[in-house]
Structure formats: structure tokens, C-alpha cells
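Q: I'm writing up a methods section and want to include an example of the input and output format. Could you take the sequence below and give the corresponding predicted C-alpha cells, formatted cleanly so I can copy it straight into the document?
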Amino acid sequence: MNNKNTVIRQCEYLNAPRRVKFGRATCDEFFSRVSGNLLVSGKESGKMSLIENLVHHYISREDFSTVVLTSHMELIKNIEFENIRQIITSRADRNYMPFYKLDAQQIISLISYTAEKLGYSSINSKILLYASALLNIVASQFPLSFPAITKLLEEDDDFISALAFQAGLSNVVADNIRANHEAGIVLRRVFEYMEEAFEDIYEPGCDSEYNFQNAIANHVRGMIMYICSHDQELMNKWLKEELYKALKNSRMKIRVILDEFPFVNPKDELFRFLLSAKKQGRIELVLVTQNVLDLVANANDLALDFTNVIMFQHNNPTVTDELSRKIFGTFQYHYPISGIGDVPHVFFSLRKSVRWDIRAEERLRVCSKDLWPRQSVLGYQSDYMAVKTSANENVYLIKTSEFMPFVNKNEVDSL
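A: Here is the clean output for your methods example:
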């Protein structure tokens, strides 16, 4: 008796742990309901209509404050909200106030990094002595901030040291100012360099009192910032300090959306801080990028530990498969095979049955071929995307054209 049907049914049963199914959803439905950290990676992640839709749905929830850090100027120009408090920071509206209410030690670390980068490592200790004294003087009069520091640096050392005496500070503070004149000159160059790095978000001398801390305390639901800089490493170090202080002073969780964020290397301080804060449950992280493997190359695979994932096709099928292996994993695929150990039959055999057995091999739960277009009855083809949520362990294959219907509509309208 032929056991083929029995073996096929057994294989189907053994392959059930793959848990990959076809599903249907639109981005409006998904982004309005998804809960928890989210990773979006693939070619379609660069479509501005998708990014705008994602940001709009998250900020419209009004559950907690959302910080959007983007490298797309188009997002800054196109995003609009009604009846929702939001603040947009970009070249057109440079309203952020760097260093506002940061701790002196946080500012000192940024000064030290910049001085080293500018080639002043030999006198860095004197620069930090001067800077520490200057920050003490500023803090005795006003909250620490970039405009307050640069305003005082416009004065000469005699004026600054005299101000230390007027503020009732110790002689040591004034002595550190007067005894390190060269360091003071270099510190002014350091702040000029920082001002250039912040030129797309900060208007020199602007005393707006706006930063993440104040916005979150005042229940501003959306903060969108264009974060590209000629010194991206300095920008990222500073953003890490700003977000750290905002989280420290806020009792509420915040959401951080990274839209194609320019991390400079896998050891980027901001990247590591955000992953740590995500792991501790202090933030809800949404990472949108066309290839997340570029961000986490040589980094710990825990960087890809997201409860919700959207994976589109990537430019290279190998990249898609590599990312799928890291995110969705593998399973034992079982399939039937016939004629094991049978004598070959050239023309015919008196035997009326063939023995079927089961073999197994390791396969990806989702491979690049699973996302290739499939032709429908009507002849229409659509790519697929893989979606996993915190609701269950299933991975759903969804038509990209159904998830992003507005992309096709925009293409038709432009013809």
C-alpha cells in the first residue's frame, strides 16, 4: 500500500511550528493599533508617504510624548497635525536651546570631546578647568544653557573673574579663569565649532527655553527634529545627553522614532543608550531604516530584539535572508522522499507500492523568495512584506500594495 498521503500529512503537521501565514492589513490599521517597540526595515521604508503615515498615527495617539529624530527634510515640511501640540525644529525654525538645564558634568564631557577633536588634547585639562569655573559662574546667575555660556564668553577674563567675586564664589573659581587665559581662547573656539554643528536646530543667541525636558513636562505630544550635522558624532553625543536628562526628569515613558538616523558607527553613544533604555522599558523605540543591518553591523544581535517587526524586501536578497535569520529565525522543514533503498525499476515493477519517508533540513521561516511578487487571477502582481507583532508568534505575509495603497495611488496620480 502506498503511504505517500500519510507521509505528506505528517510533514504538514511537523512543519506547523513555522507559523507563517498570509494576512491582510493596511498601514492605517497597523500603526494605529500596534503596541510596543517597532522595527521597520527594507526598500519601502524610504517612501515618504509611509513615514508620514507612521509619524502621524503615533503622535495622534496622545498617549505619551513622542520625539521624532529624522534625516528627511521632506518629513519636516509635509507633516501637519490638527488640535495636537507639537514643536518642529529644522533649518526653517531653529528653536531648540542646547544645553538648557543640562548638568555641568554633561556639558564638560561634550567640551572635552570637542577639544580633543580639534587637536587641543595637550591642554585639555586646562580647558576643562576654565570651563568648569565658567559654568559655575553661569549657574550662579542663570540656568545653564548654550546661549548663556556663549554670551559670557563674549567678555574678557577680567570681567568674568570679577563676576565670580560678585556672585560670591570662591577665589579658586576666579583664579582658574585668570590663570588659564590660553585655555579660555581655545574654549571660545570650541563653542564656535559646536555652534556650527548645531546650526540647523539652533539660532545663535536664541533664548527659547525649548528643549525635550520642558516640552515633555508641558505635555507637548510631538517633537520633530532634523538631526543631520557636519559633525554627526558630536550631534549624537549631545542628543544622548539631552534624552538622558529628559528621561531622568520625567516619570512618564516617552516614545522615540528614529527615521533613517545617521549613526556614525556601531558603538555610537546615542544608539547604545537608546537600546539600553528600550531594554529597561524607559522608552518605546520605533526604528525606521532601509537596511537595519547597516546600523547594527558588528553590533550585538540584541539590537534587533524588537517585539514588532515589518520587513520589506531589501535591495539584495542576501540581505533580506540574513536579516530574516536574525529576526524570525529558522525551523526544521520536513518533506517526503520516495524510493529510499529500493532497487531501480527501468520499465516496470510488479510492486504496486513505493515506500515514502520523511527528511528534514533547516530553512528560514521567511526567505527572500517568500516576498517575491505572486500573480493573481486578474494578472496583478504585488510584492509581499513580513510582519510580526507582540500579539502572537506568527509571521504574516501581507501584500505591500494592500498595506501601502496610497503609494500606488500617488503613482497613478503622477502619470
